[in-house]
Amino acid sequence: MENTTTTRNILIVEDNPGDFVLINEYLNEEFYQPRVEHAKTFIAAKGLLKSGNTFDIILLDLSLPDGSGEFLVSQMAILAGLIPVIVLTGYSDKAFGIKTLSMGMADYLLKDDLSAAQLYKSICYSIERRRITMDLKESEENYRNLFDISPVPMWVYNWETGRFININKAAIEHFGYSKKEFLTMTLFDISPYEEIEKIKNRITTIAETKGFNKGIFKHLKKNGELIEVEIHSDVYSLEQKLRLVLCNDITESVYQKNILALEKEVYKLNSTANVSFQEVMDMLTQKIELLLPGSFCAILQKQDDNTSISLSKGSMPAAYIHAIEGGAIGPNAGSCGTAIYTGQNVIVTNIEVDPLWENYKDIIRPFGFKACWSIPIKKSDGKVLGSFATFFKLTKLASIQNINLLERAASLLGILIENRNAVDDIKKWNERYDVVSTATNDVIWDWDLLTNKIFWNKGIKEILGYTVINESTSTDWWGDKVHKDDVKRVIEKIHSHINNTIMKWQDEYRFLCNDGHYKYISDRGFLLLDKHNKPVRMIGAMRDISRQKEEDHRLKLLESVITNASDSVIITHVNCIDDSDHTIIYTNDAFTKMTGYSKEEVIGKTPKLFQGPNTNKAELKRIKKAIKRWDACEIEVINYKKNGEEFWNNIAISPVADSTGSFTHWIAIQRDITVRKKKDQEITKAIISAQEHERFQIGGELHDNVNQILAGVLLNLGMTKTRPVDEQPEWINKSVEYIHLAISEIRKLSHKLAPVSLDENSLKETFEKLLSTININNRFSIDFFIDEVSQMHVDGDIQLNLYRILQEQTNNIMKYSKATVIEISLLLVKNAICLRIYDNGIGFDTKKIKDGIGLHNIKKRTELFSGHFTLKSAIGKGCEIIVEIPV
Question: In angstroms, rounded to a whole number, what is the distance separating the alpha carbons of residues 844 and 878?
């Protein structure tokens, strides 16, 4: 086909409808969207040419109702002007066809030999030749440019001597000689010996006529390759006796013509009655052997057990075919087995050295084969059916032309085998249809479009409840049963498909059953066409989808409930391995209101989108554990809205299973509990504040009461020294009574804690004082470090909270740790005060030992100020707590 998007404007002057159709088909095969005008008479052609239409080429039949012969040619030459005219003639007009060339016609073609490729080339050459002729007349410089850059081999030669005078680049490249070599040669030097006399006679003839000439000859390239060429020549200079030649290599065209003829012959034989498929394949292998001298061809078919059998052996020795039949197919199974396995061409030019034949040399060596080319035979969908194998008794390289021939043969075989299999499949499908018609729950129908009768299977009784006579009804009977609100739509659609030959039809409607109730029906049909591609039948099946419709309705109700729920709802896909792949597939409107994210922004993403620095990792681990176990779970964590705002989220997740019990999705119900959490924090804060207040009061009482009593004891004991000896026991007894009273007061207050007095800028001093009280006996080596926090203005509540945390943990260390070293640091890290307390004690297993009261209080105090609590410990590794409170 023409490798361009240029549209050719072509006038066909032809009164024979069949010839016109054929010519038009050839044009559409070879040209890109040609614009074709048709004139059946000379008068009609004259009108088209004089009306301003422009054409690139005119194809002229020599015999028209209103003109023929020289008159027609001469008149058309005048009308055509610069437009090339190609004469189309029969064998009887062949001599006159040649004469028309001298009358100004661009070319002549014999109708009986006409092909798409030949017509294409003649048109292209005629247009090109006319352009060259015009260029030659306009300017010698234009000629030189055209001559040098032309892709067609061209030369100028002297018709008396046959010597080359000039040669273009295309000819140099095509023939392989240098320009210097060409200019020392004659036409006879590139002609085979048997052609020389023919060329001499042609030179003599054209020297006498001195006009345009065309002929087909054989030429030799420098490498010895023999090619077939089509020569177009014309006078270049009468004075110098020079002719300009265009040489077109038609070797491939002739080769393709032979292949095309072979394909037509194979198709014709395959369609002939009483000719077996075996005969067709045998004829094909024999013809290929003729086109490839010295070849031995065979056709191998792939079996279901991954072996191959012979379908045709051509001239191959029967013993060799017997030896290779049943051979395995694989990556190193010679040429054929490998081609079938890979689906690629396998060209082995020397069997003796090729690794693919390593395991098969002993089998093939006795038969003398040295080369093997194997082309896979494929179906239209690419599935490999077998291979076309070509053997040679000499090592042989495959040319592009050779491979093209074998690929076309393999493609042809693929079509033939696929068609044969299709016939077999049709028989099988007919048998299966009978079985399915008996076993299926569908109502199968067959509509004869010519008689408007519908034939039904037993489903019409079992599913719809109707008993019909002769298993058939009219189409009106069916139409009467379709619901009145559906019937117009359904009938219009099905007739639209039939009228426009749309092969597949499908629709849903309500159909009245024999019991008076309507069922929802999913109906689908397929058109069957006659040989003229006209619909003659439609076969289909009706399926009862009433239950599916009810389920769809129920699901829509459930979806409506979820959509309008006040709680946020998220549905994700299931992934048993990694929760990071639990992608969101659905959210309701409440989710958008709660988080600020639209559905489009989160669909396809994971719930990790809502997590942030203050999201509790322990709670996330708990939910991951539940996911792995397919357990429902409920957690409360801090999540983040689209604008970055934190909020407390109560999340309850549950797995969703399908009808088989397999889990397919997770559904999460979420509720914003920020307000509740804030109230909880306010309550906790108030409780702590009240406790501190109460401790302060208790401390005051302890100070005022117990201190006064002890002061009285001290005073009383002082006065005892000044009393007479006989009165001293009485004074001592009074002191003992006061001491007992003090002890009683202390016992009453022992369960209460004394409040700590903190100034907002005395955090360092307060910590140091507390640490000194626990280390009176130098029991511990205490390292306390505080950075710029000591200079900060820290809220009093935060100071008190940090003090209580330190007090609680040092109390734990003294009671349980058996530590000798304590490290305390108080640092400012990223807008948060970070308190770290470490001891080198015996440690404990955090997984086995639940939070004690002390650790629980520390954690709650941390969360009260939106802080983060971390605990690290292991047996024998001491204990470390880190508290981070934002400031």
Answer: 8
